[in-house]
Amino acid sequence: MLDKAVTLLETFRPDGGTYRLTELAERTGLTKTTVFRIAADLVRLGLLERTGDTYRLGGKLFELGSLVPRRQDLREAALPFLQDLFEATRETVHLGVREGHEVVYVERIHGHDVLPLPSRIGGRLPLTCTGVGKALLAFSGAELAEEVLAQPLPSLTPYSITDPARLRTAIEQAQVSGLAYEEQEAALGVSCIAAPVFDGAVAVAALSVAVPRARYRPAQLAPAVRTAALGLSRVLRSGG
Amino acid sequence: MLDKAVTLLETFRPDGGTYRLTELAERTGLTKTTVFRIAADLVRLGLLERTGDTYRLGGKLFELGSLVPRRQDLREAALPFLQDLFEATRETVHLGVREGHEVVYVERIHGHDVLPLPSRIGGRLPLTCTGVGKALLAFSGAELAEEVLAQPLPSLTPYSITDPARLRTAIEQAQVSGLAYEEQEAALGVSCIAAPVFDGAVAVAALSVAVPRARYRPAQLAPAVRTAALGLSRVLRSGG
DNA sequence: AAGTTTGTTCCGTGACACGGAACAGCTCGG
DNA sequence: CCGAGCTGTTCCGTGTCACGGAACAAACTT
Fold first, then answer.
1. How confident is the model at residue A240 (pLDDT cuts 50, 70, 90)?
2. Any idea where the HTH iclR-type domain is (chains A, B) (predicted)?
């Protein structure tokens, strides 16, 4: 029952999709009757909304999700530094945490020009294809890095690193410099520079700035990213 | 079953609270056994996390909540304008939508100085005590305003408007000027100025800037708030 | 008008959610 | 030292309610 309800909610993965009853039944593998009954319950509870014959995720889910303490506290602490970084660079700024072998984006702010990035708040991407992911990977212990390197490396673009040896040197470079670089590995035409955020000795998050390749000036971005990450790390250490 | 699970999740309302098993049983009114079983299921599904004997909301809830299309689309469209407004004023900026007789905050950005406000992303506050709420109330149809005015007006501070007649004139002023004002009605020492955001003819959201009373200069804030709201309205009308 | 969708209702069966009771591990205080 | 009061956890018999196949009505396409 609970499992089926969550399965149902999780089929809404893609961006802003709205589904019909039979479509949900197919995707979830549940009986049409079961989907009908559970969806009705979920609508009654506010987790799902229904207009006509199409379902979409409901407002209560947003409210509940906003209460998740780990995410919310981090976001609250990070926001001023993300603002600083955005103002200094005027480019798209990310904040992400690690979850397994993926990065979950907690915040993303940008101006009027929106880059065609695969990153979304609450979305997951492979650690190995993103700046934030690489920064996290470089400072989350050797055993995690080995785990990731042992598996086939996913790719989002033709530029995504799929060679473990190349990724290993990239990680080592990040560990030395305290900065992770990414060039068109997550989205074509977009490069990225990221830095880890520490709460004590372990990296709890990473932030990055993503820039259209034409405007990519690492020497100017690096100090800003590093400054923001260090500032946030300091606040986290003192605050909690 | 589903009802009980949602009840369980909803008891986490307060700020970042973590609860223990018996505490959850008391607050929900459910049996300790039932809470134990359902909580275990929720942990297994990632909606709840457990460390030691304390439960807190889980990361999957954050991910699901981030997918809610209504909220996410609005936030994405609004963010650039909120950034503009923040840069112009350097004060705390809000974006909220109406849900029943309450405002739900969709976004809130601020710099390093954090005001002691009751507003939280995903949080609900009475329409009548907040700038965003008043702006929504003024442009959501007369019948809604009458409904709200007919009920006893809640208050967050001693300055919150509890006299229906006073609220009525405030709403009328907002309808004329296109701006809603609020002075210490949501939090002591903080004033606020808000403007509605239209998608066509109906107000779908409102944005506001909250300022410490000492720095409150309405004449300077008003144009910035109005500009941001109009810009966002224009994008919404053309985009969807 | 026949056929194929859709969403919805009905209903008999059986699994499983339920909660009281009993258990185990802990921290008190006498 | 030991019992009283907590905690989280397990067990189990009862009864319910979730389940899905089948039948339905409505809106399409053909």
1. low
2. 1-59
